[in-house]
Amino acid sequence: DILMTQSPDSLAVSLGERATIHCKSSQSLLSSTFNKNSLAWYQQKPGQPPKLLIYWASNRESGVPDRFSGSGSGTDFTLTISSLQAEDVAVYYCQQYSQQYYPTPRPTFGQGTKVEIK
Amino acid sequence: QVQLVQSGGGVVQPGRSLRLSCEGSGFTFNSYVMHWVRQAPGKGLEWVAFIRYDGTDENYADSVKGRFTISRDNSKNTLYLQMNSLTAEDTAVYYCARGIGMALIFQHWGQGTLVSVSS
Predict the structure, then answer these.
(1) Pairing of β B113-117 and β B10-12
(2) What would the mean pLDDT of A21-27 be, rounded to a whole number?
(3) Is A88 helix (H, G, I), strand (E, B) or coil?
(4) Minimal CA separation from A85 to chain B, in Å
(5) What is the phi/psi pair of residue B64, to 5°?
(6) Mutation for A interface: B94, B96, B105, most A CBs within 10 A
(7) What is the rounded distance in angstroms from the CA atom of residue B68 to the CA atom of residue B17?
(8) Which residues of B96-116 are buried (b: 16+ CB within 10 A; e: fewer)?
(9) Close Cβ partners of A118 (under 8 Å, ≥ 6 residues apart)
(10) Distance (Å, whole) CA B12 – CA B9
(11) Average pLDDT over residues B55-67
(12) Could you give the CA distance from residue A95 to residue A85 in angstroms, rounded to a whole number?
């Protein structure tokens, strides 16, 4: 299975400041079929299900504020919150959905990064 | 709007069985791949299983293969997870999720239901 490693495990950022979360995969997530990276980001607030923020590494899901952006390619990816708001306090997960193992897919998640207000 | 409403779950003894349900509304249920994802208490997310929109293909995580069965009844807009031979390691909040096309992206999530395996 593809191992996803996030850094840091936790992050404290002042309101209005930038928050950056890194995600590294053990194998390239660049799909030769789609010419896109099979990487998604989710936000999970306490007591709630996860919420999809970003897919194909940089496509923002409908309704997600534009302060959230995703970047990266191959094995290294970044989620950036450009100006942290109080409602952004949450745990963030990256997830790979590589087609490498098709027809027996093996999606895996990073361990999560907790974002708090400094 | 898209809604996934889950039912089932609860406390069950090791070795016993349980079935979870997930009813979808606000979208054409029979056009979407559906998934189950779980989260052990205080832990991260683990994909469990997926089923093709027409039910003709399914796949499982190694940790549940042979014990869990995902199914769907498109006439009832409902997804199921039959869990057999449960162990303490299966204790988790279970979420159903709707996919995007055939990519294993979890676009919409149910509210989650807690399964606790304990004697």
Answers:
(1) parallel
(2) 97
(3) helix
(4) 23
(5) -125, -5
(6) B105
(7) 9
(8) bbbbbeebbbbbbbbbbbebe
(9) A12, A13, A14, A17
(10) 9
(11) 94
(12) 23
